[in-house]
Amino acid sequence: MSDISLLPSVTAFLARDHGLYIHGETVASQSATRIAVVNPANGETLAQVADASQVDVERAVASSREGFQAWSRTSPAARASVLLRLADLLEANREELAQLETLQSGKLIGIARAFEVEQAAHFLRYYAGWATKITGQTITPSLPSFAGERYSAYTLREPIGVVVGIVPWNFATMIAIWKLASALTTGCSIILKPSEFTPLTLLRIAELASEAGLPAGALNVLTGAGTVGKALVEHPGTDKVSFTGSVPTGIAVGQTAMGAKLTRATLELGGKNAVAFLPDVPLDKAVEGVIEAGFLHSGQICAAGERFYVHRTRIEPLLEALSERLGQLKIGSPLDESTQFGPVANKPHQRKLGELFATARAEGSQIIHGGRIGDGPGCFVDPTVILARSPNDTLLNQETFGPVATFLPYDTEDELLHLMNATPYGLSASLWTNDLAKAMRLIPEIQAGTLWVNMHTLLDPAVPFGGIKASGIGREFGSAFIDEFTELKSVMIRY
Ligand code: NAD
After folding, report:
1. How many Å apart are CA 338 and CA 77, to the nearest integer?
2. Is the pLDDT score of 219 beyond 80?
3. For the chain, first and last CA: distance in Å?
4. What residues contact residue 143 under an 8 Å CB cut-off, 6+ apart?
5. Buried b vs exposed e over 154-164: b needs ≥16 C-beta within 10 Å?
6. CB neighbours of 475 closer than 8 A, spacing ≥ 6?
7. What is the Å distance from ligand 1's center to 418 Cα?
8. What are the φ and ψ backbone dihedral angles of 480, each rounded to 5 degrees?
9. Helices (H) and strands (E) in the chain, counts
10. Mutational test site, ligand 1, from 169, 246, 251, max ligand atoms within 8 Å of CB
11. Which of 22, 222, 474, 477 has the most CB within a 10 Å radius?
C-alpha cells in the first residue's frame, strides 16, 4: 500500500497565508513572528502560523466579550441548532479535516477519521442536547418566618462568560471540540489556543462554525506559543480557563488563573496510569489489553496505561507474547491506510523518549522490546516494552506519553493496590479480571478519576472524565461539565 492522495482542498488550505480567526473572519496577526508547522512523518514544513501578539489578544478578548453578550442571550434551542449544524459540517468535511490532522500530528489516518472527526461530531451532538436541559432548583428556605412573612428561593445556572480553551497536540481537533461544545452549549463565548505544533484543523473548524451560523465573537482562535495562552488567562476580560495539557504547565496555568482574579480553572492534566492484570486473565486477552491500554495512538493519550502490573506467575509468558505481537506491527507513514504504527507527534517529544530510554538503561531496567528512536527526519520511536527492577525506576514514575509500556510483577492483591496507588497522579486506571467479586472489592480501593474494568481508554460523552490528585481539577462530559462552565446564582424572594 502507499499514501492516500491529498484532497485539493487540503493542499489549497496548506498553501494559504494563515492568519488568526477573530470576530467571524480570518484576520492578519499584528505579530511578525511565525511558527512552522512540521509534518512529524517526514520533517517537512507544512505551513507557517502566527505567534499572536498582545494586540491580537486584546482584539480577541474584545470580540469575545461582545460575542458573549449576543450568544448568552440566544435561546437554548438556537444554540443547540448551531452545534448540530457544526457536527454535520465536520462530517461533511471529514476527509479534509482528517488529512490535515494526520499531516500536522502524525496520527494514523484511520484514527484521525474515526476519533478526531467522527467522535468529535458525536461529542458535539451530545453537548448540543444539553443546551435545552440546563436547569436550576426550587428551594424551600429552612428558617422559620419571623412575623408571618414567607420566603421562596430558586437557583439559576448562568454562563460563566468568556472562556479560554487551551489545547494540547495529541488530539488537537477532538479536545478543542470538547471545549468549544462545553462553552457554547452553556452560553459562554470561547477563545481557543491550539498547541503550537498542531494549529491547522482549528483554523478550519472556526470557518465551519461561522458557516454553521455561530455569530461573530462567540468563537475566536489565536495561534501561538504558550505565552499567548498565558496572556489570555491573565487578561481581565476573560472569566475561565479550560486547560488540557501536562502537569507542570497545568499548575502554572492554575497559578496564573488564581493570581489574575480568581479566574475559574478546569485543569485536565497527565498522569502515570496503572493497568492491573489479575492471574485469571487469559494470555491472549492480556496481550490485547496491553495494546489497547498502552499503544493506541502510540500511547499519546492522557488516559493511556503506562504502568503495567502482572502477577509474578504470569509475567514472563505475557512479555514474550507481547514482544512477538509488537514485532508484527506495520510501522510507517500515517497516510498509508495499511500502517498500524506511525511516528510520534514532534521532535522534542521524540527526543524526550530517547532520553527516557537512556535513563531506563542506565538504571538497569530491562528493555524487552524496542527502546530506540529513529535517526531520520521523521519522529519514529519503537513500540517499547520495559521490565522495571523496582517501583522506584524512572519509567514507572515519569509520564512518557509515548509508546512505552513498563511492567512490574506483583505477588499479592494488597501489594498490587499499594503499587497502583503509590503515585501523585490519578487520571485513569484499568483492572483486568473475570472474577466479578474480586473486581467489585478492588474498584473502591483504586485511586483514579476513571477506572475501566476489562477495557481501557474508551471515552464516552455521557461519562464524566477528569483527574484526581495531581492529574487535574474538574470534570468534562456527562452533566458534570455544566458546573464548570456556569455560575450558580441563588435568588430568594420575601412575600
Ligand atoms: P503542554 O502542557 O506542553 O501544552 C499544552 C498547551 O498549553 C499548549 O497549547 C501550550 O502552548 C500551552 N501552554 C504552554 N505554556 C503555557 C502557559 N504558561 N500558559 C498557558 N498556556 C500554556 O502539553 P502538550 O505537550 O501539548 O500535551 C501533552 C500533555 O497533555 C501530556 O502530559 C498529557 O498527559 C496531557 N493531556 C491531558 C489530557 C486530559 O484530558 N487529562 C488530554 C490530553 C493530553
Report:
1. 43
2. yes
3. 77
4. 151
5. eeebbbbbbbb
6. 266, 449, 464, 465, 466, 481, 483, 484
7. 29
8. -60, -30
9. 16, 22
10. 246
11. 222
Tens-place pLDDT, residues 64-97: 999 999 999 999 999 999 999 999 999 999 999 9
Closest Cα to atom 42, ligand 1: which residue?
302
Q: Confidence band (pLDDT; 50, 70, 90) for 111? A: very high
Residue 264 CA to ligand 1 centre (angstroms): 17
Distance from residue 168's CA to the centre of ligand 1 (Å): 4
Beta strands in 39-186 (DSSP E): 45-50, 138-139, 151-159, 162-166
Q: What is the pTM of this model?
A: 0.97
For residue range 5-24, what is the model confidence (pLDDT) as tens digits? 999 999 999 999 999 999 99
The pLDDT value given to residue 110: 98
At position 360, the amino acid (one-letter code) is A
pLDDT tens per residue, range 118-133:
999 999 999 999 999 9
Nearest CA to ligand 1 atom 34: 270
Q: Is pLDDT above 90 for 144?
A: no
What average pLDDT does the structure give for the chain?
98
Find the mean pLDDT for residues 451-461.
97
Cell of 415: 501489594
197 alpha carbon to ligand 1 midpoint, in Å?
Answer: 11
Ligand 1 centre and the CA of 156: distance in Å? 33
Of ligand 1's atoms, which has the minimum distance to the CA of residue 241? Answer: 20
* Beta-carbon contacts of residue 217 (< 8 Å; ≥ 6 apart): 23, 24, 63, 64, 65, 66, 67, 68, 70, 71, 189
Residues classed as catalytic: 268, 302
CB 188 within 8 A of CB 220: no
Ligand 1 neighbours, Cβ below 6 Å, are 166-170, 193, 195-196, 225-226, 229-230, 233, 244-246, 249, 252-253, 268-270, 302, 399, 401, 427, 467, 472
Q: What is the pLDDT of residues 367-408, one digit of tens each?
A: 999 999 999 999 999 999 999 999 999 999 999 999 999 999
Q: What's residue 49's pLDDT? A: 98
Q: Under DSSP, is residue 276 helix (H, G, I), strand (E, B) or coil?
A: strand
- Tell me how far apart the alpha carbons of residues 233 and 241 are, in angstroms, rounded to a whole number: 6
In whole angstroms, give the CA distance from residue 220 to residue 373: 38
The preferred substitution site among 37, 195, 460, 473 for testing ligand 1, maximizing ligand atoms within 8 Å of CB, is: 195
